[in-house]
User: Fold these one by one.
Assistant:
Number 1:
Amino acid sequence: MFKTDLLKTLAMSGVALTTLAHVHNHSITQEINDSHPFIVIGSDMADSSKSLSSFTVIENHGDSKIAIVGSEEKGQLSHIAHEDHKRCGGYFAFETLEKAQNFVKDSKVNAESTQKAIFADYNLDQRELVESKISLADELSIRNTILKLSSYHNRYYKSQTGQDSQAWLKSHWESLTAHRNDVTVDYFEHDSWPQKSVVATIQGTEGGDEVIIVGGHADSIAGWWGQAGKKAPGADDNASGTATFTEVLRVLAESGYQPKKTIQFMAYAAEEVGLLGSKEIARSYKAQNKNVIGVLQLDMTNFNGSSNDISIVSDYTNDAQNTFLKTLIDTYLTDLTWATSRCGYACSDHASWTSQGFPASIPFEAQKNDMNRRIHTANDTIEQSGGTAEHALKFAKLALAYVIELDN
Ligand code: BES
Ligand code: ZN
């Protein structure tokens, strides 16, 4: 059944039968590159990939395409993605056409309706409270968290150090909130890999039905396919974001802020291998019908690569909430400037929430073209950001303003 469908598709797109045999001879037990001939790429990459002799598009899906490519040319595809399109892994590979189709469907589901819908009251009326909390955000606290997280050999989703770093983060959050009986810190465990996500919850005083989420991925990776043994400090990607929302938690907890709505901080596992941790959590929240009124993603906040301070990513995010963020900057962070930028694909965990129908945004460290080029290497250290957390501090202030204004 699958084979005849594939045959038809390939015949229509003019792929030689030798290629088909080639595709079918791959078994899932082979090396990952060889067993995943079906790739999903952004339309922007399709043109520059045409030069590869084995590259054939078999389905068009708006912004993305499903194609096949021989394992020998996968390295070149990564190169094209990385050099021409400033993309990291660059493409997603699957064992079967069906899996590739499901992936495409999944990232589109609800995305369009979510884009335009309004989920919350975005009026600003908490100037005094916001200003007093913002003044407590501290560069050195953020810097120290970045230094601690990036001191692990890597935080890869399958390595022991990737589990140890999450255990450290959990106990750090516990010690920051030990004096509060309305705060819990839990693991969210994943069945298919060892690294856990960590979730801190400040229970809302008004019943806690509505939830505000601030998160980012805590894992790191070296190279495109990841290797458990490789050094990956991930200081910018994404110790920076994790340290940024850790600071938001510290300020709110230490200053005695008792939210009306429930606030959750989420350090996702396994983002670097396909948004896996956040995808499971967002799906579980959807299945439980949780009333999430806003999701803020912090992924890469400490490399000051552009003339503007904060880039609001406009794709796979919620328009109304993005406008809210711009208004927060204009109102409370008046010495900062913002611009918009596009990722072009589902580049981080905000996309997991968007595809489940929740309103998500990602304020980013720079324009996409000016981003930190050392990510996913052994050189992703805080030194690349001047050795301080000055840039990340701006994002901690924005996230504080976001939480407080959404809560009230
Ligand atoms: N931190 C990056 C996301 C990112 C990269 C945002 C560049 C904006 C510009 C993230 O950790 C990452 O590496 N994402 C992957 C995709 C993911 C689904 C594996 C990427 O960009 O290739
Ligand atoms: Zn990354």
Number 2:
Amino acid sequence: MAILKVAQLGHPVLRKKAEPVAPEQIASAELQAFIADMIETNDEYNGAGLAAPQVHRSLQIIVVGSSRRAVEGGDEEDSIPLITLINPKLSDFSAEMEEDWEGCLSVGDLWGRVRRARAATVTGLDRDGKPATIKAEGFLARVFQHEIDHLHGKVFLDRMSDFSSLSFRREFQRFHELYE
Ligand code: NI
């Protein structure tokens, strides 16, 4: 296992469309080790999720949640289960939208408010290559939309309708985090 280097905004890998993974590749030791490294990297940096392009591999793989937080428990944001999805696709977006704060391990210190569908369905393959369907809402739906955006070369800044909320971490924590 290893902690991987996280690509920062401006690196072209973050703006490329990621390649699908061939299902027969999923069981390979190399891919399984890479997924384990993604989970370890996401945990190390306290991410809510991580997409493979963020660690310089242009592949359609995301991990959401955290193995560490799942054990420790916590509030809503901390309690999303650890999920790995390969070739994930979103569908059945709710008409209802919700705006909330997002940050990103590839966008340094910036936080901003992003409008997303409140609920959506995600389909893909799990770590064993088995089909998986997850009906997500709230924070989990947000994290899926954020991570799957990375597979299409998008970051959360692209989804902001205006930048008036954009804040550095320190100011976000000082003025916004506890009050909204
Ligand atoms: Ni991100």
